[in-house]
Amino acid sequence: MADTTLQDTLRVHSFASTEPGPRLVVLGGVHGNETCGTVGIERTIAELDSGALTLLRGELTLVPTANPLARRLLQREGERNLNRSFRPSEAPPDYEARITNLLCPLLDRHDVLLDLHSFQSAGEAFAMIGPRDNAGALEPFARATEEGRLALHIGTPRVVEGWLDIYAASLAQRAGGTPADDAALAFGWGTNEYMRSRGGYGVTLECGQHTDPAAPVVAHAAIHSALRLLGMVAGEAVAPPQPALLRLVSVTDRLDEEDQFVREWATFDAVAQGEPIGVRADGRMLHAERDGFIVFPNTEAGAGTEWFYFAVASDRAL
C-alpha cells in the first residue's frame, strides 16, 4: 500500500461571474503521471488571475491535480485507479475513495465536465465521449448532442465512443457469457460516467503521449474552446471539420508480464483483419479480429490489466 502519511490537499479554484450561465468543471491529474492537464489548468488560472481571461457568465471550477498522492509519487495511481469505481462511499476503503468523496459533490454542482488526460503510447490527441441518447439500463443518457458538440469544438482529429459498452462486454466474457452485476459494472465508472448519472455531460480529452511537449498546449487550448462554446468567455466558437469517429469494440488484458506485442504500436495504428498484434507467454498469437485500430497499447501493463483496446470506424456524426 502506498505511503499516505504525508497530508495531501485537494486544491480547487472556483471562478463565478455575476451573470448566470453554464457551470463547467475541469479536472487534471486524475492519474499522477499525466501532467499535461495540470499545466494547462495552471496556465488558465494565471490568465484569470491576471485579467488576461475574463469569465463573462456562469461558473468555472478548475482542479489542477485531482489525485495528489499519485502526483506526489509520480505514478498513475496512489493506491488504485481514481478513474474507476468513481462514486461516493460511506466508508471509503482507500485513498482514491476518499478523494472521490471530495470530487463527487464538486461534480454534482456543475453541468459540464472536461477531464484532461494523456496516454503511455505514442499517438495523436483525441476526445472520448459517452453513449448516444438511450433509455437502456447500462448508461441511460439524454444529452448526447451537447456532449458531441463539446467534443467537436475541442478540435481533435479523432473522437472515440463506446467505453462502458466494451467494459460490460469484457466482464461478461471473463465470466463465460454471464452479464456482469451492478457492483462489477460500477468499477467501470469514471468521472464522466458519474457526471452523466447526475444529469450532466462530460468529455475526456486524451491530450497525447505523457511526455509530448505539445500535450499541455492541447489541454490549455481545449479549456479555452470549451469556455468559448459555452459562451463563458469572449470569442466565437468555430467548429473544425468533422473528426474521424471510432467505436471501441473490445479490450484485451495482459495475462502475463511475458505477453509481448509483435512490434511497437501507437494509438490509432491501423490493422487489417488477421494481422498479428501480440504473442502470449505460452506462444499463442493474438490477431486483429477485423479491420480496425489499436488504441492505448500499453507495454507497461501489469498482469490482469488492460493491455490494448480495439476500435472500428463508427457511423455516428457529431
UniProtKB/TrEMBL annotation:
Gene Ontology molecular function: hydrolase activity, acting on ester bonds; metal ion binding
Under SUPFAM superfamilies, the record lists: Zn-dependent exopeptidases
Q: Name one GO cellular component term.
A: cytosol
Q: Domain of life of the organism in this record?
A: Bacteria
A Pfam family of this chain: AstE_AspA_cat
**Cofactor(s) the protein needs:** Zn(2+)
Q: What are the record keywords, sorted?
A: Hydrolase, Metal-binding, Zinc
Q: Domain Succinylglutamate desuccinylase/Aspartoacylase catalytic: where?
A: 20-119
PANTHER family xref list: ASPARTOACYLASE, SUCCINYLGLUTAMATE DESUCCINYLASE
The protein's name is Succinylglutamate desuccinylase
Organism in which the protein naturally occurs: Variovorax guangxiensis
